[in-house]
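task queued by scheduler; priority normal; single chain, no ligands, no partner chains; default sampling; output format set to structure tokens
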Amino acid sequence: MTTAVERLLEVVAQLREHCLWTRALTHDSLVEYLLEEAHELAGTIAAGHTTGQDAEELKGELADVLYQVVLHARLQEEQGRFSFEDVAAHLAAKLIRRNRHVFRPDGTLQERFPATLEEIERSYDAVKAAERPERTGPFAGLPASLPALTLAAKSLDRARRSGIPVPGPAGNGHVPVQAASDEELGELLLGIAGAAAAQGLDPEQALRRAVRRFQDRVMQERPGRDLD
């Protein structure tokens, strides 16, 4: 009996063979669609469409993202490099290897599991660092093209987990944040964006440059530490 995944792979292969538009797709041309579908999925989740009838919308968005992954894998399979099956096998092996607090090397479950998030973070970070010894610094592998707020949050988290003081109440405290909830924080950020616009400033680029300065300071003070 054909599984849903097998049928999906068959349909995509047939589209690549018989649909001129799909046949013309490349990794480069697919990037814009991948980003669009990922943002649509994030928007669906942010809107709370995850339960009841709304879950059907989530299912559709997940399917759109999966289609992008299958297409990219199919392009490689046509070149004789790897298949979607190889991608799935790579992911399973990576999850087992990275999460040694859950799995033994052979993929079976550990007898006991960490009781705190801190233990999990230490275990996960140690494995990642050992996998990529050529990468130096806590920000290695962090895409510079991420949205500025996401890039800032991830950079600060990487620094924190590496034992490096970070700006803000959780670090050295020189950047006060008067927000007691997500809603208040959102209004604060909206106000900052509005003030920047009124002065002809670009908050996205300003924050991106601030993140770069922070990363540069960290690398000058404590080079050679990797968390990716």
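post-processing summary
- The chain has three domains: 4-97, 99-131, 148-221.
- The first helix runs from residue 4 to 18.
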